[in-house]
Amino acid sequence: MTAALQTHSLHKRYGSRVAVQSLDLDVAPGTVFGLVGPNGAGKTTTIRMLLDIIRPSSGSIRVLGDSPRVGGAALRRRIGYIPGELRLDGRMRGRTLLDFLTELSGPVAPGTIDTLAERLGLDLRRPVHTLSKGNKQKLGLIQAFMHRPPLLILDEPTSGLDPLVQREFLSMVAEARAAGQTVLLSSHVLSEIQQAADRVAVLASGRLVAEGTVEELRSASVRRVRAVVSALSEEAVRAALAALPTVTDVEVMPTAEALHVAATVTGEVDGALRALLGGHLIDLTVEEPDLEESLIDLYARTEGAR
Description:
The protein is of the alpha/beta class. The chain folds into 2 domains: about 5-215, 3-Layer(aba) Sandwich (Rossmann fold), CATH 3.40.50; about 220-290, Alpha-Beta Plaits, CATH 3.30.70. The chain has 11 helices and 13 strands. The strands form 3 sheets. A 6-stranded mixed β-sheet has the order 5-6-7-3-8-9, with helices on both faces. A 4-stranded antiparallel β-sheet has the order 11-12-10-13, covered by helices on one side. Helix 6 links the parallel strand 6 and strand 7 (about 180-185). The protein starts with a strand and ends with a helix.
């Protein structure tokens, strides 16, 4: 199966500053792929290279099976794009602007623009320069989705949108995936990534530091495990957990009936559980991290390793 998006050893340098370094991405068609990272991680630079807005210093790119440099306008018509900093102005009405963009993007099914405008709550009769930031963002979303392209590249797509419209946007993404479209979603709103993405790539300082499903990224993070154990001594529990390199911050509180144990576990909790199951496990609580906690932990470990 040909990848919808693929980069190999992608590198972008501005003078002495490296914006993207040796980036390998492989996005399967018909999936939602999340791109996350702090400011300056290289997300927008990567997206601009995918669209041939800027050229890489080295490495290769394939978008829908074609080189962006060679594909030109024909390839761009197969992509729906909203930039991270959307700038729209002018005295033409929203409807007029979208009609003009339809001539550039390709055929739009009758009624599609009106349906999307109704779903997002946008009045297309208003001049573009009178629209708020949020309403301009809605206009940008309509132009990206309206021609139902095989690939959507969305950079911070919900910037300025209220929570109800954000929820409608997530429904649009889910419908696009169900229709076989591929979505590259770059966002600081990690709850969106957690809800929408099939796979997530994590960038830091221009490098890919992790990739996987949301569950895989969460499973690699830290958890706080609390257990109540009987028939084991405090010394035995401490010794068993001390032997596990993924377990830290162990606390053991003896009571008359049992031991109350708390520990921080990095990655899977199986080893910690096996250590405790040598006795009698009465109760167990594992505090699962959300994606934001997992990424914060991942960034901290990445910088610590450097």
